[in-house]
Amino acid sequence: MTAEPAFERIAIIGMGLIGSSLAHAARANGLAKHIAGHDSDPEIRTRAEAVAGLTDSLHADLADAVDGADLVIAATPVGACGDVAKAMRDHLAPGTIVTDVGSVKGAVLKAMQLHMPYGVHLVPGHPVAGTEHSGPEAGFADLFRDRFAILTPPADADAAAVARLVAFWEGLGSNVELMDAEHHDRVLAITSHLPHLIAYTIVETASELENELEAKSRDDDVVTTREVIKYSAGGFRDFTRIAASDPTMWRDVFLLNKDAVLEMLGRFSEDLTALQRAIRHDDGDALFDLFTRTRAIRRGVIEAGQAGRFQYTENGETGD
Amino acid sequence: MTAEPAFERIAIIGMGLIGSSLAHAARANGLAKHIAGHDSDPEIRTRAEAVAGLTDSLHADLADAVDGADLVIAATPVGACGDVAKAMRDHLAPGTIVTDVGSVKGAVLKAMQLHMPYGVHLVPGHPVAGTEHSGPEAGFADLFRDRFAILTPPADADAAAVARLVAFWEGLGSNVELMDAEHHDRVLAITSHLPHLIAYTIVETASELENELEAKSRDDDVVTTREVIKYSAGGFRDFTRIAASDPTMWRDVFLLNKDAVLEMLGRFSEDLTALQRAIRHDDGDALFDLFTRTRAIRRGVIEAGQAGRFQYTENGETGD
C-alpha cells in the first residue's frame, strides 16, 4: 500500500504513556510522514531517546517540535494544556489541527481556546484507554485499538478538521464518539474519576491500618508484617492497580473536574451509607437484592466488549 | 508415582466455584481415592453431573456424601455452615477432619463447633482465591495454586489433624498460613470485604445515574443509552468484575463479619471525606502526596507476587 500518510508532521507534546503510545501507533498505522516529539523534562527526553524508533525527531524546545506540524497533540497532564497552548501559539500555521488527550474536557477547552490563533482548529479529545504504567517506555502501539476515543469539538468547529481527526483516531483502531465537553465530563466523572478516587482512598485506608497492625505486632512480638499486601488477592489488589496511576495526571483531573466529581462523590456516599445501615441492621434481603442487580451490570460490560483483554498466564501481570 | 493418596474419601459439600475447583484440584493432585460431592440444590447437582470427571459420586443426601469420609469440606456460603454441621454430625466417624472455605472465620467456627462430635477435628479454613464466576462449571484445578490458604484452628485443635490439612492445601499448590479466627476476620475485612462493598456501591451509584441519564435522553430525544457501560474502560469496569461476585456468599460475609466490616467502613469514610475536602478546597498538594503514597503500595503487591496472572490477549476476559 502506498497511500499518502494522513499528516505531514505530527507533533506530540509530552512523552508519557499516552504520548509514546501515540507515536508508536501513528507509525505502525502509517498516519504521518514525520513524528516530532517534545517533553519539557530533560530526564523524560533522555528516556524517550532510548526507546528505539519512538519519534523521528525529539525536541527540547516546544516551538521546534510544532514547527511545520499539521497535527499537534498535547499529551500532557490536563493542568498543563493551557501553558502548552500559550507557548506554541506563535508557532502554529493556519490550518493546523490542535488536540489533546486529557480526561477532562470542559476545563481544557477553556484553557486552550483562549490561545488559539485564527485559522488553527482546536478539537479536544480523550482516548478512554490507559494502564497504570507511566513514562516513554510504557507506550505501545495497540493501546487505543478497540477502545473509545471521544472528541469534544466546540460548536463552531471546522467540520473538515473534525473529520480528519476522526479519521486519525479510527486509523489507530479506536471507535470515535462525538459529544459536548460538559456531557463528557459528567460521564467520565462516574465511569473513571470516581472509581480512581475510591481506589486511592481504600488503598490509603488499608495502608494506615497496616501501619497500625505493624506497630501493634512489634509491641506484641508477633509477626503480622505486610498482611494487607499478602492477602490482597481477595479483592484489594484490583484497587491497588488503579491507585498506581500517575499522580500528576490525577491531581489535575480532580481539580479541573471538581463539580462533577463532587456530585458523583455525594451520590456514592449516600449509597454507601444506605448499605452500611443495611449491614448494621442485619438487612440481608437488601444486601442480596443489591448484589443481584450489580451482577447484571457486569454482564452489560462484557456484552459491550469493554471487559478488557485479560487472560490467565503462568505469572507476570498486565492490565489495560 | 504410586504414593497412597492422602485421604481415602473427601466429601465436598456445595458444588459451586470453590467446591468444584476443590474436586478438580484434589483429583489432579492425587489427594483422594474417592471424591464425593453433595449439593442441596437439585439444579446444581444436575449441572455438576454434566461436568466430566468432577466427582466419583454425587449425592442428593448429605449423610450419604459424608459417610466414610476422612475429610469433609463445607464449600457453602458461610451462612449455611452451621446447618451443614448439624445435618452431618451423626454421620461423622471419629478422626474425621472437618473444614470449610468461608471468607469469615469467627462466626463459622462458632456455628460449626457446637455440632462437632467428640473425636472429630474441626479446622476452619479460607483459600484466598476466587473469580467472579459461580457454579459447578466455573471450577478449575489451578484456582488455589500460588494463592494463600489460611487455616484458623481453635486453640485446642489436634496437631496431627492440622498438619494433614496443611499438607492437603499444600498439595493443591497453596501457601498455607495459620492464624486465629479473629485476626483473620480483621485482615480480610480490609483486604477483601471492604473492597467488595465499595465495588457493589459504586456499581449501584453508576447504575442509578445511568437510569437518570436515560430518562433524560428520552425527554430530550438524544441517544445516551448505556454510556456508563460503554466508557467503563476508564476504571469502572474493574469494579464491575468484583461486583459480579456471588450475592448469597457476600450477603453472608457482611452479616457474619459485621463488626470488622463496619469498623473498616468507618475508617474508609473518614479518609474519603478528607479527600473530598481536599478537592473542594483545591488542595492539589494533598492529592498529589496521597496518590504518590498509594502508588508505592501497588509496587508492594507486585513484589509479593499477588498481582494476578493477567496478560493481554486479543479478546475474551478472565480474572482471578
State the main characteristics.
homodimer; 320 residues; alpha/beta; Rossmann fold; 6-stranded parallel β-sheet; 12 helices
Description of the structure:
The structure is a homodimer. The first copy, chain A, folds into 2 domains: about 5-180, Rossmann fold (3-Layer(aba) Sandwich); about 185-305, 6-phosphogluconate dehydrogenase C-terminal like domain (6-phosphogluconate dehydrogenase C-terminal fold), CATH 1.10.3660.10. Chain A is built from 12 helices and 10 strands. Chain A has helices spanning about 15-30, 40-50, 60-65, 80-90, 105-115, 160-170, 180-220, 225-230, 235-240, 245-255, 260-280, 285-305; strands spanning about 5-15, 30-40, 55-60, 70-75, 95-100, 120, 125, 150, 175-180, 310. In chain A, β5, α5 and β6 form a beta-alpha-beta unit. In chain A, α4 packs parallel to α5 and α7 (about 180-220) crosses α11. Mean pLDDT of chain A is about 90; it is low at about 220-225 and about 310-320. Chains A and B meet through α7, α8, α9, α10 and α11 of A and α7, α8, α9, α10 and α11 of B.
